[in-house]
Amino acid sequence: MKIKLSLIFLALMAVMNLNGQNSGNCVADLLLTSSSEREYTTEPVSDQQLDLILNCGIKAPSARNLQPWKFTVVRDEPTMKEAINNVVPGNVLIIISGTESENGATPDFDCGLAAESMFVAAHGLGLGARIYGSPAGNINSKKDLFQIPAGYKAVVVLRIGNVEKNTDAVSSATARKKPEEVINYRK
User: Fold this and answer.
1) How buried is residue 95: exposed, middle or buried, by Cβ count under 10 Å (0-12/13-18/19+)?
2) What is the pLDDT of residue 105?
């Protein structure tokens, strides 16, 4: 009887891991279980958390290691609301700006990699994060307000904040497409 119960328990755990998308690898598990949160608490992001997140952005890969980005940290609510209207006190916005290129090349991809590195770092710290592209145009029309450095343009905005700890990111996230809808194997 004990062997049967043990087998049932192991089978149940295996099914739970498949449904919860658990791989046994901490980085993969973080990626498989995170989402782009929309609801945040007013608990502030600490300076230590923010420093670690920014350092992860600095370490992001870039083409030819040019690191064509600047990170503008915005913590005051009125300025944050100029970019994203539903921010709450305690949130932090990081505007990722890229160099304005004269030769036609754009740093947008590299800035996206930096944003993703900071997004993953925020989730690794138990924070919520969301990457926004659409506020960039508004920010670029108000570069002085957002203190975007000369020669740079806003590419994306990363919102970071604390979220309710009882929120289940897997079940509350928008459904993802099935692998067979997005993966094509060359035969």
Assistant:
1) buried
2) 62
